[in-house]
Amino acid sequence: MTEPAATPSAPGDPQRAVATRRTNPVAAHPITSLAIGVLVTAAILGTLIVPIYARETPYVGDFPFFYFYLLIYMPATALVLWIAMLLQRRLAPRQPAGPGTAGTAGDPVSGGVR
Amino acid sequence: MSNVNAVVFTIVVILFVFVAVIGFAASRWRRADDMLHLNEWGLAGRGFGTFIGWFLLGGDLYTAYTFIAVPALVFASGSIGFFAVSYTIMVFPIAFIFLPRLWSICRVHNYVTPADFIRGRYGSRGLSLATAFTGILSLMPYIALQLVGIQAVLTVMGVEADSTNKYVQDIPLFVAFVVLAIYTYVSGLRAPAAISFVKDTLIYVFVIVAVFYIPTRLGGWSHIFGTAQTHMAAINPVTKKPNGTFIPTSKSIGSTQLDFATLALGSALALFIYPHTITGALATKRRDVVKRNMALLPAYSVLLACIALFGYMALTDKTTAAEVKKAGNTQLAVPYLLQHMFPSWFTGIAFAAIIIGALVPAAIMAIAAANLFTRNIFKDFFKPDASPRLETRVSQWASLVVKFGALAFAVWLPHTFAINLQLLGGVWILQIFPMLVAGLFTRWFHRWALVIGWAAGMIYGTIAAYNVHSPTSSHWASSSDIVFGHTVYIGLTALVINVVLSVVLTVVFKAVKAPEGADETLPHQYTADAVDAPAPEPAGVGAAASD
């Protein structure tokens, strides 16, 4: 398991961090926010829309496609959510256990509109 | 107790005793100064990190229902049982959207139950009571189902006493349950949290071994899938229809794709609003821990997919299939399969894994139901000035009452009944989705509209589920119903009715300026982290509440 602090999503320069905290994080990072939204939505739709994978063929090894797809989809979801989480941290440039930095940064998926 | 295998029995007893010792010792784990506080007994100090949180939530979400009922459904009906796999995938992105907000607001205001939040948000004790009532109602049969899972294992082990007397027969179940009830009473949430380490380790070991070993005994995966496909396509002499579906179909007659998708979506929406999963989530120490676990918990769903495939393996093994048919109870498919495929010592480990796997969620569910009773019924309506100490005492006793209520369910009612009630539990709990999840994002909805929507959903869901019949049973036959010519999960239909009513009536109540109720939460609190809300203090809930 990667320790998330060591990822490229480390905070930018402090000035920008302050600015972000004061403005809406979604408006400040439209592309990152959109990416998170798309990732999470795609993760849900990829298994909700059954016709995508309700097929017997092609077989993968001995597994009919339907069963193979469901098996592979789980690690994929895990990966997608991990990426989404790292992206969210980029919107909220604050270390999770970091001391002192009060004030709250939102995230577009779970922190957007009220 | 005539045909008990001594090795299996010994191993199960040793592991059970081991777990019981851990359960009692857990009261000293991360010991707090004052254990008589609901944050301690009911949420284990709200201090779990990613690692323990993962074990606790994993142990909490994947219940005996998963290990017994899902493969039983696959065994009986084929691919529709895999909705559970789809659902446990979908649940994490969905929870990722709202669970961190719920965690934050509960942390800031020191809410212990989802109903605490509802009361604070809408300033309505009535709405909070509806939530608490729904929560307890849905949890009871869920706990009973854990017992049904244990019973399935005990039946195959042959440890039901040789007697026609129901009470004598179920003595082993009573013993297991009394021990569970006592250590939950003593250690609170710390007990299932500590035990979940044992549970998860045993489950991982047995499932991984089984999924690689059993196919080699049964002629490989291609043979397993082939047998399943043939069996599902064969015409059942009783119903004159195919036994099941191997791949969800979209044919106009007997379509199962929509059924599959709505069951998965409905269950996924329901899972993280069940009070016991919220209890598990609130016991973590940082907002980030919740998010990280949404990305890490799908590892468990891989296990679930393997477990679901056990249903096909049981179908392929002729001895197992014949025994299940003879017993007339598909719940026995997995226990029989394990018994036939493994040497006694490993069967013992696998059986112990399932039994312990049922005890962990049963304990957390009892704690969650007890907290709901204490905070949102006892304190709100009978003793508003209850001290934290008294709250904890009441919760401890309530957890005992809940457990024995569930035991009564499992022993007195026919097993299919507990399973149907569990399906109904899902339908019921979904009805708090609008007030809880919408409430995390907006205060637009009017509290009275939400109550009416909730009531309509509950009534429709219950009646619709009661009326579903099949060639083999006249009521409670399934959790899906036919709406406008499509087979759809009842819970989702009821939720739609609930939401539509809530929206329409909110517009009406706003137009006539009905009193809105006070909101004690602030927008920024929904994204707050532990640093913003440091020490959980014994504050009261919903001081501003009135109605």
Architecture overview:
The complex is a heterodimer of chains A (114) and B (547). Chain A has 114 residues and is mainly α. Residues 1-22 and 95-114 of chain A have low confidence and may be disordered. The two termini of chain A are 33 Å apart. The longest helix of chain A has 27 residues, at 65-91. Chain A has helices at 14-22, 25-28, 30-48, 65-91. In chain A, 52% of the residues lie in helices and 0% in strands. A two-stranded antiparallel sheet of chain B has the order 1-2. In chain B, a hairpin with a 2-residue loop joins β1 and β2 (486-489). In chain B, α4 packs across α18 (344-382) and α6 packs antiparallel against α7. In chain B, 61% of the residues are buried. The interface between A and B is large, with 53 and 57 residues.
* Percentage of β-strand residues of chain A: under 5%
Gross geometry of chain A: elongated
Mean pLDDT of chain B: 85
Low-pLDDT residue intervals, each spanning 5 or more residues of chain A: 1-22, 95-114
Overall average pLDDT of chain A: 69
Low-confidence stretches of chain B: 536-547
Give the end-to-end Cα distance of chain B, rounded to a whole number of Å.
58 Å
The greatest inter-chain interface is formed by:
A-B, 53 and 57 residues
Quaternary structure state of the chains depicted:
heterodimer
Tell me the structural class of chain A.
Answer: mainly alpha
- The overall strand count of chain B is 2
Backbone shape of chain B = globular
Q: Give a short account of the largest sheet of chain A.
A: none
